[in-house]
Amino acid sequence: MITKTDFNLPKNELVGPVVFRPDFNKSEVITVNQAWSLFFTGGQEDKVLGINPELGRFFTYLFIGVGVAGTLWATIFNSLA
Predict the structure, then answer these.
(1) Who's near 70: CB < 8 A, 6+ residues apart?
(2) Which are the contacts of 65, defined by CB distance < 8 A and separation ≥ 6?
(3) In the prediction, which pLDDT does 46 show?
(4) Would you report the helix, strand and coil content of the chain in percent, each value rounded to 5?
């Protein structure tokens, strides 16, 4: 039995990363959530984190906090040794 679908997409656009799809790669500005989704999925999907910007901001601030804490830790413990 052959099923008919309404999808008319070439197979290479479904398998490849989202950043190489024609509808995504138009030099448009992406949101923080899209950027982190692309990072966590290796460029495969840009809508994993949804549309609420709070989760994207959380990961951004977490990344900055870890960097600042690591720098302070290295500075403090290098000056003690």
Answers:
(1) none
(2) none
(3) 85
(4) 55, 0, 45
> What is the model's pLDDT at position 70?
96
Say if CB 17 and CB 43 are below 8 A apart: yes
- Do you know the residue count of the chain? 81
Q: Collect the ranges in the chain with pLDDT lower than 50.
A: none
- Centre a 10 Å sphere on the Cβ of residue 74 and count the other Cβ atoms it contains: 10
Q: What is the pLDDT, as a whole number, of residue 7? A: 60
Domain ranges across the chain? 11-80
Say if residues 66 and 58 touch (Cβ distance below 8 Å): no
Q: What whole-number distance in Å separates Cα of residue 28 and Cα of residue 31?
A: 10
Answering whether pTM is above 0.70, one says no
